[in-house]
Amino acid sequence: MQPKPDHVIAIYPGSFDPITSGHLDLIERGARLFDRLIVSILRNETKEPLFSVEERMEMLCDAIGHLSNVEVDCFNGLLVHYAASKEATVLLRGIRAVSDYEYELQMAHMNRRLAPGIETVCLMAREAHSFISSRLVKEVIALGGNIGGLVPPSVEQRLHERLHVSAESNRKAALR
Ligand code: PNS
Fold first, then answer.
1. Residue 133 Cβ < 6 Å to ligand 1
2. Active site residue 162
């Protein structure tokens, strides 16, 4: 068993397409637990993202500006290889509901098998964020629903622009 490093580096990996308020909350809480937190976007995803990696990195950078020990990056290939290259000893993930647990458990076991020196730490999402996902946020805004508070304001603006939903029609939809 390796001793605790003086400077604990954690990776928070994900798709972040786009970052939600739930992600941001986890980042803020992770920033209080670890000396350095690297929020990193998986580059080689098979699923078709709404935003490019560069756009997602910009949105993340905008959202974490107030956190001095947090940075944004992207990676290819195996997460544990990337984590080792950053000298990280922790993988941070969030769990919103029991339905997330099985997936996270499977990944944590696989990652431990691949790299026993790297621990997965899961934080429970706040109750108020437990239903938020990037996928649902995109679906709701695309159909004219109100996503205020579910994503950082700058991300909401970008979603409006990308999905050509006017603020007015969104407001009307919220009042329906
Ligand atoms: O936000 P997501 O889509 O749930 O994040 C999934 C992610 C990026 C953490 C996972 O797909 C991943 O780590 N991919 C990198 C490839 C890898 O290491 N696969 C083995 C994981 S056990």
1. no
2. no
Indicate if 4 belongs to the active site: no
Q: Which two tokens stand for residue 4?
A: 């605790």
Q: Cα(11)–Cα(13) distance, rounded to whole angstroms?
A: 6
Tens-digit pLDDT profile for the chain (176 aa)?
Answer: 888 999 999 999 999 999 999 999 999 999 999 999 999 999 976 779 999 999 999 999 999 999 999 999 999 999 999 999 999 999 999 999 999 999 999 999 999 999 999 999 999 999 999 999 999 999 999 999 999 999 999 999 999 999 875 555 656 666 66
Q: What's the token pair of residue 73? A: 């990056």
* Known active-site residue 15: no
Angle at which helices 153-163 and 134-142 pack, to 10 degrees? 50
Distance CA 15, CA 136 (A): 14
The predicted model scores a pTM of 0.93
Annotated catalytic residue: which of 40, 93, 129, 134? 134
| Residue 14 CA, ligand 1 centroid: distance in Å | 6
Decide: 105 in ligand 1 pocket, CB within 6 A: no
DSSP, collapsed to helix, strand or coil, labels residue 142 as helix
The token pair at 27 is 């980042």
Binding site membership of 14 for ligand 1 (Cβ less than 6 Å):
yes
Written as six digits, the tokens of 131 are 């239903």
